[in-house]
Fold this sequence. Notes:
Structural class: alpha/beta
CATH architecture of the largest domain: Alpha-Beta Barrel
Radius of gyration: 23 Å
CATH superfamily of the largest domain: Alanine racemase
Mean pLDDT: 95
Largest sheet: 9 strands, mixed
Shape: elongated
Number of domains: 2
Low-confidence stretches: none
Bound molecules: pyridoxal-5'-phosphate
CATH class of the largest domain: Alpha Beta
Amino acid sequence: MSGFAFLDGQLACDGYPVATIARDHGTPLYLYSGAAIRAAYGSLDRAFAGYPHTVHFALKANSTLAILRLLRGLGASADANSGGEIEAALRAGFDPSQIVFTGVGKTRDELDRAVALGVNAINIESDGEADRIDALARARGVTARVAVRVNPDIDPNTHAHISTGLRVNKFGVPLEFVAPLLRSLARKPGLEPVGVHVHLGSQIVDVEPLARAARVLADLAREVRDAGVRLKHIDMGGGLGIAYDGVTMADPAAYAAAVLPAIRETGLHLIIEPGRFLLAAAGILVGRVADTKSYAGSPRFIVLDTGMTELIRPMLYEAVHRIVAVAPRPGADVESEVVGPLCETSDTLGHARMIGPVEVDDLIAVLDAGAYGFVMASNYNRRRFPAEVLVDDGQWRVIRRRQTYDDLFRNEQD
Ligand SMILES: Cc1ncc(COP(=O)(O)O)c(C=O)c1O
């Protein structure tokens, strides 16, 4: 059994009872299924099997080293979005030639590090950034491989906060400026233009906008080829969504069928940068009931020992995660507010959820929390980062120990 499912009335991870793992390692706890990561990677990779491609896992979704090593072992490359993510990729064993470096607002130091390493491509965001990379590369006597991030002004039909490919978004170079920019890059001694890049947004379940974006990039690659700029790859970014409701799922085969026709006409290597699709369903956040209350005229509150400091997606994106009792008790469901312990009203993990009887110390799991979960954790209210446990190859192990109070104060100079 792979992933998360109920077994003999108890939530299990790859067949192992979540309650046993939580008893050993405490809560709040992120728990990952290695089998689910392998299955998601396999399904995406197989969907593109008929065409030369590389899967650059987007580290922003989850950059815990053991997870990165697992993905590298499956054949993944890396998409890093900051100097810290480049460092994580290197520490997890990725070669610089496997790293693409994306990000609006890369600092000069971050760019210089990427140039010095000789990463696969730096996805540039503006003419000014291109000039800075050129200067850094020339100062080092090297040529930096660059791709231009295109802003195609295409609506990915997702939440506004995770939509990135519209003209009003801060990302990329507006389409009509890209071909002239690529031609000018080819004339700069410190740069080698190798690709075009797009990332429309995240949690995309309708693949039609991705098909349109692929067509735009393919046309662009042909246009600049006719002007003498021969690119090597097209990078379609990430964005493929998962079934947070347990039902509505973007399908890797449909994704491939949407983008490949246009890409195939160019003959260029295809890069994709999935994050959420590979990790979200492979992780849960396990918390414990700290208190319950239901007074006349108020909702029933289930107060957990975990909240927005461990998983901020519901508060930041109005994301809806399924929430289940790890060992459901018999009895009728009651509409409940599932809230965290922080001094914030917005610290609500689930609103108006139908949940059965729960008692203090019961375990509760927030599903589909493997992507954009731990990576967005904070120490607000002086809370400590949770532990992370990975179940893989028939065993489970701590891949990040819970922060201690000493960890929490380590950098302070009192
Ligand atoms: C440039 C880029 N690539 C890839 C991703 C990964 O997206 P997702 O997790 O939706 O696949 C993101 C996420 O925002 C991104 O900004």
